[in-house]
Amino acid sequence: MSVSMLAAMCVTMSSCLKNDSDNYVAPVDPSVEAPALQAFIDSTGYNMVTQSDSLYLYVSNGTNFELKGYKMPYLYYEIVNPGNLTQGSTDTSDAAIGGSVGGNTTIYNTYTDSTLIASVTYKGTLLNGTEFGKSDEPVLFAIPNMIYAWQALVGKVGKGGEIRILTPSLYGYSNSAKTGIPANSPLYFDVKVVGFVKNSYGK
Known about the structure:
It catalyses: [protein]-peptidylproline (omega=180) = [protein]-peptidylproline (omega=0). The protein has one domain: Chitinase A, domain 3 (Roll), CATH 3.10.50.40. It is an alpha+beta fold. Residues about 10-20 have low confidence and may be disordered. The longest helix has 16 residues, at about 5-20. The protein has helices at about 5-20, 30-45, 150-155, and strands spanning about 50, 55-60, 65-70, 75-80, 90-95, 105-110, 115-125, 130-140, 160-165, 185-195. It is about 20% helix and about 35% strand. It has 3 helices and 10 strands; from the N terminus they run ααββββββββαββ.
């Protein structure tokens, strides 16, 4: 899927709302936000990169998850710490990963089609530094349910890893306003991965 197709999806979904609201805001192409993204990188001194080739996301086919490639220009990231990217697992207390089922849980080093739930700590800000979300304690997220930027990038690091993510609004919440996040806001995240758990966790 190209960025134009992603934008078209946003426009199609948003156009359904246009007649129902006077507050409609059209989604923004990532190229329009490119100068603001570059200015953020320059001001922070972060060594962030973007990929010209496809990034891969796990997408449900109704039965299981399969990798699909997507062109996502102007999506920047920096791997601060790659973490443990070897195949393997350890047992830990459920509380240590932000779980709620109790007892012990097996955590895995890498993100795969069977370990799509990530235990992370994170901070999210607007480009002006305004914080809209943070957790210093581990929390669990099903990554395929998260914004495109997280789907594409969180799995690039393993257990104990850290990644910085700078995303145009289209791969974030696009033209949908959220608490603390105006519509069409480019976003910055610092994500530290505690580990990954099986898709069947809690079931």
